[in-house]
Write a structure and sequence with these properties.
Helices cover about 50% and strands about 15% of the residues. By secondary structure, the chain is an alpha/beta fold. Helix 10 (about 315-335) packs parallel to helix 19 and helix 17 (about 500-530) runs antiparallel to helix 19. The two termini are about 30 Å apart.
């Protein structure tokens, strides 16, 4: 290794970087070389779009060189990240909902500083950067104040290497001079290596070395005074102007030995790179993967969890949605689904006893087979299901039924009681006329399946109540009225306490809500952090994707506690839905499904770059999950082919059945359906996490 590189902190040799492919390829760095010595201040100068941003993004791991070598402190490296580097991007890239103090504590914890260290260093930096109100939220600060906080964050952990992208923009001249004095002291006294970019070329005189960059190449690098002597200039701007003129003429100064105090450069042919690429701020780049550290940091996870909690607390609408939307959905569901019907308009046309609602005699407990229609009506009116009305005009009633003004009607023949008595006592050799006249003709509207089911159920139950009561009064065995089918109930159920449609749907609605909200929360937060640059800045500070996942899982754990306990209290305390299983097992399934939603949201957010794409894909995937997961109807009705197997592969299907079995049947972990439900949830979470890391790794290339 040459002597000039033995004391170098950062070197890039023969670096190249291009964007696009084929005819659309755009070369941003071409045979790029850079040398920054230990304990020095290096001023990186050049116009916007010349490639400075690309170089810095390569140094901190947001991008990678297509070819060439990056060396850090004598060893080959992919990037600078973690505690070794302090990075201040061109944009501030700070969390707007945090205040100044919380911002310093967030990054201090990521850098594994304890509270006393953070407090001491923060106080010194606040005084140095003229930041007064530490309780002011970042979003309320001016642009200059945000940049000062951003610089403080880069300095909080006293790094070995400082990378500052235009730190003096928007700063008054006095503070600008203080910043340069501070950086000079850091480099001289603490041997800190500083790489700084600036639009104020003349202020770079205070740097130990500077490099002029244009069109993806370093035109020259060296000590400021030596460069001015070489070019006979009294200002650095004149040096840069001279270099640009030579570059435009097809010649340039070879920078390979300029930082050895000997800029006798040689003449070389100009590169063919003439296109300028206007890049966005580094902190708004597409998410890139940087190498993961060997261990997960509890300090980092603590910082991420506190940040997540503060974000929720300072976004009350989001917090209210996360906590109360599942509750509202479950309450709305319990109020609207699976309940009995009330006051259904229904007409009775009774030729045996016209206007029977007013004409029926009082109900008696004697074994009489007269006024049978009145006895049946007595049992039908015990509930508020029907709003019965009388009529004698069968044609008018049929017209109302066809027009939809009533939901059904019953026609009873004039000698219904006599024929019913004959049918009951002489069931053999009945003629067709007797059968017809002893049968009530019921017409039910078929336009609404739930309404039809409710009416049919109540009519049948009312009739069997009448028949059981009649047989009991007449001292005849009630078993004669039973169907010749004996259905053996499960131990926890009896014929009076069978699960309703509402009890069937409740577990699935609960899990679907938890999955969907966790998916939205993780994806939206992840994309928001990526778009405003805070995600990239945190990753440069050493935060891993797995740590972010864990932090969101911990945050969601607290929300799930509130959601689950409240929902279970409503379901079983207010709406009296039976419950037979373990509360802990219910919570476990709900939590795992919440983490499944988080993982799925991260996977989508890693693939899609903005909110619109993420939301579209979420809707595209959540709707099939909603309808094909056995939430609203049993998967057994989906046939035996591909569709049924596909439904079982949905992320919620088996978990929904597991929760349903726990809640309605009292199953525990020893039952296969519960094991499959938990296992499928874990597999889906693992697949989503693996795919997230794969996508991130591919994008980093």
């Amino acid at each position: 290794m040459p002597k000039s590189e033995m004391d170098s902190m950062i070197t890039i040799r023969n670096g190249s970087k291009s964007y696009g492919s084929g005819k659309n390829v755009l070369c941003v760095l071409d045979n790029f070389n850079l040398t920054i010595k230990k304990g020095s201040i290096y001023g990186f100068l050049g116009p916007s779009g010349c490639g400075k941003s690309t170089v810095l993004s390569i140094l901190v791991g947001q991008r990678k060189l297509d070819s060439g070598e990056l060396t850090v402190d004598g060893g080959r490296s992919d990037a600078l990240h973690g505690e070794k580097v302090g990075y201040m991007p061109q944009d501030h890239c700070l969390f707007g909902f945090l205040n100044i103090s919380e911002t310093f504590y967030y990054y201090g914890r990521i850098y594994s500083l304890d509270r006393s260290e953070i407090k001491t260093r923060m106080e010194n930096l606040l005084n140095f950067l003229d930041l007064e109100n530490i309780n002011s939220c970042i979003i309320n600060l001016s642009g200059g104040q945000k940049r000062r906080v951003s610089m403080g964050v880069a300095l909080i952990h006293s790094p070995d290497i400082l990378i500052l992208d235009e730190p003096t923009v928007g700063v008054d001249p006095i503070l600008r001079e203080k910043i340069w004095q501070y950086l000079t002291n850091l480099s001289k006294k603490e041997n800190t290596t500083v790489l700084i970019t600036t639009h104020f070329i003349e202020e770079a005189r205070q740097a130990d070395a500077i490099g002029f960059m244009r069109s993806g190449r370093l035109l020259a690098e060296g000590k400021p005074l030596e460069l001015m002597q070489i070019h006979g200039a009294i200002q650095l701007e004149d040096v840069f102007f001279n270099l640009c003129n030579q570059d435009n003429s097809g010649i340039m100064i070879d920078p390979k030995s300029s930082n050895e105090s000997s800029l006798n450069g040689v003449i070389v042919e100009r590169s063919s790179v003439d296109n300028l690429l206007t890049l966005t701020d580094e902190c708004k780049n597409i998410h890139k993967q940087q190498p993961l550290s060997k261990f997960i940091s509890c300090s980092t996870i603590h910082a991420l969890v506190m940040k997540n909690l503060l974000k929720l607390m300072r976004n009350p609408s989001v917090l209210i949605m996360m906590i109360f939307l599942p509750i509202i959905m479950v309450v709305s569901f319990c109020l609207a689904f699976g309940n009995e019907g009330y006051n259904i308009p229904f007409v009775i046309v009774n030729d045996e006893l016209p206007y029977m609602l007013d004409s029926c005699p009082p109900y008696n407990q004697e074994c009489e087979l007269t006024n049978i229609s009145c006895r049946i009506l007595h049992h039908l009116t015990r509930k508020d299901t029907f709003d019965f009305r009388d009529s004698t005009d069968i044609k008018n009633v049929a017209s109302q039924f066809n027009q939809g003004t009533i939901s059904g009607y019953i026609y009873i023949h004039g000698n219904f009681s006599d024929m019913f008595f004959k049918r009951l006592l002489q069931p053999v050799d009945l003629d067709l006329d007797t059968i017809n006249q002893s049968t009530m003709q019921v017409h039910l509207s078929q336009h609404s399946f739930p309404l039809t089911s409710i009416m049919q159920k109540n009519l049948i139950e009312g009739y069997f109540d009448f028949l059981d009561d009649l047989l009991n009064i007449c001292e005849v065995s009630e078993e004669l009225a039973d169907l010749p089918i004996n259905i053996i109930d499960e131990p926890q159920f009896d014929s009076e306490n069978l699960p309703s449609m509402r009890e069937f749907l409740a577990p699935g609605v609960f899990l679907l809500t938890v999955f969907f909200l966790a998916n939205v929360m993780s994806g939206e937060f992840f994309i928001e952090d990526r778009l405003n640059g805070t995600h990239e800045r945190s990753r440069v500070a050493g935060v891993q994707t797995l740590e972010i996942l864990i932090s969101y899982a911990i945050t969601n754990f607290g929300i799930l506690i509130v959601q689950t306990t409240t929902i279970i209290g409503l379901i079983y305390g207010v709406f009296q839905i039976p419950y037979y299983g373990s509360l802990g097992l219910v919570f476990l399934i709900a939590f795992l499904q919440g983490y499944n939603g988080l993982s799925y949201g991260f996977m989508l957010a890693s693939i899609f770059t903005d909110h619109a794409q993420f939301n579209h894909m979420t809707l595209f995937t959540i709707l099939p999950v909603m309808f094909l997961s056995g939430i609203w109807w049993t998967p057994y009705s989906m046939g035996t082919g591909f569709l049924r197997k596909f439904c079982n592969l949905m992320p919620v299907t088996l978990a929904c059945q597991a929760l349903r079995d726990v809640m309605t049947r009292g199953y525990d972990l020893s039952y296969p359906s519960v094991q499959w439900g938990i296992g499928s949830t874990l597999i889906w979470s693992l697949l989503s996490n693996v795919l997230t890391f794969v996508v991130v790794k591919i994008k980093s290339k």
